[in-house]
């Protein structure tokens, strides 16, 4: 059932090329330059007339929501707010019929997300679900939605659910951008072509596993990790830190790289490994200068870089390469090495990778 892999988590990491394909199959027609999803087409007016989109989710799904915030605002020019479902439901939020709420949930059973949906519906908002589990409570409770089609995710740590959520939300953002006229037809087509190449590029990224395992072995005994990223890759830094915490039990924090100097830089010494997402495009020069600041304080840098990178390579202690892509699609690649790094550290520490202590796959109580 684990298909020859030692753990479900590793199997699911390796399923990502096909899972991402399954998410866009039939919805993205590259030759015709069309994106079509019934749940979006049928409710196009609601999306286009929305004052804003509020995304509600928990955990890794909330991180996918943060990536979506960048892509919706950047491409479709629709204001987006991303909320922890648990906070949203209890803080008397201002919601009206002019709001569209997107609820993201792999399991479709997360209690706080379900409660946030019910609250939003009671205020007259249109609620759209992005779920993986077909027929789940959230899929049934929402007004409309689209499934990620990632297939069953058994490992408690979410992997393919995250990348397929981002894929689906990217399709929605592109579709709305086209309808809004905020993206040119050539740029739209370019995005589709690049998205179609992502599964192959994920496969290529997975080939770094042995190298990542070697890095895992060097750092497996440290007690703290930092993860940094900017722009589209800020949420990836948060997700990388969460993945390490939950399966290895090593303390890790994710930050936007520029926030370093507002506090966390005090933590840096020769014992602190810092994973920095430093791909080309996406504020590259600024990230390079953040890396220089860390190096001058003797921190250890593990850089996630674009193939052929030289600048970061010259500064970092280790680099892991990912193929080049559009900045907006880069989280689909930069996430992969972070999943593998957490996985291998956890395995080396003899952790129960698929069922970490104190965690459940669906959090059906608040
Ligand atoms: C992290 C993880 C959790 C879930 C969160 C939301 O790896 O699995 O943080 O992402 O509990 O779950 P869903 O997406 O099922 O609502």
Automatic annotation (TrEMBL):
RNA-binding as UniProt keyword: no
Record's GO cellular component terms: cytosol
Residue span, SIS domain: 43-182, 215-356
GO biological process: amino sugar biosynthetic process; carbohydrate metabolic process; fructose 6-phosphate metabolic process; protein N-linked glycosylation; UDP-N-acetylglucosamine metabolic process
Catalytic site: 361 (for fru-6p isomerization activity)
Keywords associated with the record: Aminotransferase, Cytoplasm, Glutamine amidotransferase, Repeat, Transferase
EC number assigned by the record: 2.6.1.16
Subcellular location: Cytoplasm
Single annotated GO MF: carbohydrate derivative binding
Catalytic activity: D-fructose 6-phosphate + L-glutamine = D-glucosamine 6-phosphate + L-glutamate
Role summary: Catalyzes the first step in hexosamine metabolism, converting fructose-6P into glucosamine-6P using glutamine as a nitrogen source.
Oligomeric form and interacting partners: Homodimer.
UniProt name for this protein: Glutamine--fructose-6-phosphate aminotransferase [isomerizing]
Native source species: Aquaticitalea lipolytica
Residue span relative to the full protein: 250 to 615 of 615
